[in-house]
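User: Before I run my own analysis I want an independent prediction to cross-check against. Here's the chain; please return only the structure tokens and, at the end, one sentence I can use as a sanity check.
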Amino acid sequence: MGESKATKYSAVIVASFIIGVIIKLTKPVLFPFLLALFVSYAIAPVIDILVKIRVPRLMALVLVVTLIFAVFYLLGLLLYASASSFMEVLPQYNSKLTSLVQDLTEVLNHLPFKVDVPSLISQFNVDKVAGLLLGTVGSFFSFLGNLLLVVVFIIFILAGQEKLTKKIILAFPEERANQIVLILGSINGQIQKYLAVKTFLSLINGLLVFLILLLFKVDFALLLGFLTFILNFIPSFGSIIATLVPTLVAFLQYGNSMVPLWVLLSIALTDAILGNFVDPKLMGHSLNLSPLLVLVTLLFWAWLWGIAGMVLAVPILAVMKIVLENIPALKSWAVLMSK
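Assistant: Structure tokens:
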């Protein structure tokens, strides 16, 4: 019996390792598919609205997908231009940061106690920030390179959703089919609501940050607004980075003035209002995911797919919890995933 249990545990460990390797190797295909799946859930309400106002479903699907393709393509061109400009002024920002660290060191040397803040700041240079920004944009451009594949996935996913119910009714007995359709309807509704609301709030957050930076005439407002949109899918950690990076850019641009402080306060206030008031109001209830589980999931997907994996990590985790909550035999696992 003991050997049997040990064999089962060993098989689970080996299978998990193999699955992880397969996911890592199949990123070129699996990442566009998952992205297309999440986009499909996010835009499905728009297609439903168009169908309700008597637009043929096929025409609504073509219109929405074409619009998404055009928006992503134009956004990609703008981001490419903004990223190129950022790379041109990067050496100036780096020299400014070095100068500011030296000034801060001189001020802190007059204190009666030793402070190691300058040494910490010196480890955080603009090159690291640039790596984060360009890594995010790089992930986006690799997505643009597979944009046609993503669009094809979206079309097939949305076109196949309507036929799934009919297939289930034909494949199972009536009582069993009704039960499966009810469960799938609940799962799809919750996933659709979560992804649609999350995408909408991320878009609003990115747009507001863009307008704030534009108001204070901070460089690279579009690039930083897009970064905020992407990082908003990463809870807690993403919000912190999305607040600090624009503040750092404003600080390097304006130096020791009130502008960086106003930028910091404005972005922090915007994030607090959206996260603590608007998000709960629209979502209805929180997914209540365990912070430790979120952290482990972020680290795991970061190892698998880098920044792209971190962006998809929490949505994947949220979808898993929604699925487990709606299957009676697996509800206990959903409880374990909660806070």
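Sanity check: The two ends are 35 Å apart (CA to CA).
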